[in-house]
Specification:
Blueprint: H1 2-19, H2 26-58, H3 63-86, H4 97-126, H5 134-137, H6 139-154
């Protein structure tokens, strides 16, 4: 999987520097790559979440209950991929895995899920967005929020 990330970074570098002729500092480049990786993990995360959600809704489970169940299962997916590939532990770091998992859980469930549920209710009940489309639309708000919370808190050096 590490080779896939390297290939992705090389492709992004080629397009940014050779095709679009952008000049980006190494620090900015690393931050951009990290955000893109987080986004790709988010795609798999949301596939897990939405897949569970859709199946449960089709089985006549209440859409809010279905969303919570899918979201909670997807947190484990997020923890695995983010810990392993997006916010990798550096040589000088030592993270306590259960603390990072707890913070990841809080970041996704405590912040992301609460925000998602509020936006889901607003979309479905107030804006009459179809309950199968609403979870996709709210990603445009929750993804950047989750990235910042995870980067700045959950995966911060030494799990502080």
């Amino acid at each position: 999987m590490g080779r896939m990330w390297n290939l992705l970074e090389n492709c992004m570098y080629f397009f940014a520097h050779k095709v679009f002729r952008l000049t980006i500092s190494e620090s900015q480049w690393e931050k951009w790559c990290q955000f893109v990786k987080f986004g790709l993990v988010g795609v798999s995360n949301n596939a897990v979440n939405y897949g569970i959600y859709a199946v449960l809704v089709l089985l006549s489970v209440n859409y809010l209950v279905a969303y919570v169940i899918g979201y909670l299962v997807s947190i484990l997916n997020a923890y695995y991929w983010n810990n392993r590939y997006v916010f990798k532990e550096q040589e000088q770091e030592h993270r306590v895995w259960w603390k990072v998992l707890a913070k990841t859980f809080f970041a996704y469930a405590g912040i992301g899920l609460v925000l998602s549920d509020i936006l889901l209710v607003i979309c479905v009940r107030m804006l009459s967005v179809h309950e199968m489309l609403a979870p996709i639309l709210i990603l445009f708000v929750t993804t950047p929020v989750n990235f910042l919370v995870n980067k700045l808190w959950a995966y911060r050096e030494n799990g502080k």
